[in-house]
Amino acid sequence: MTDKKVCPLCKGSKIMAGSCECNAEWRGVDKDEGVDDCICEPDTKCPECNGKGYIE
């Protein structure tokens, strides 16, 4: 029997949701109508457990 410990970094989730940072001051940079004042990182596989959700 293998002991599987829940990965503390991603809390058992296989995918880590990308973090978003929002700042209303960024709106003035782009003159397009569909300006988003948030910058988001893409979802990534958990680096600590390699996307498994647990540590063997």
**What is the domain tally?**
1
Q: Major β-sheet, in short?
A: 2 strands, antiparallel
The helical percent reads under 10%
Strand order, largest beta sheet: 1-6
Please outline the helices and strands.
Layout: E1 5-6, E2 15-16, E3 20-22, E4 38-40, E5 44-45, E6 54-55
Antiparallel strand pairs: 1-6, 2-5, 3-4
Q: How would you portray this structure in words?
A:
This protein is mainly β. It has no helices and 6 strands. The protein has strands spanning 5-6, 15-16, 20-22, 38-40, 44-45, 54-55.
Structure described in brief:
The chain is mostly beta strands and 56 residues long. It has one domain (5-55). 0% of the residues lie in helices and 25% in strands.
Structure keywords:
56 residues, 0% helix, 6 strands, two-stranded antiparallel sheet, mainly beta, two-stranded antiparallel ribbon, 25% strand
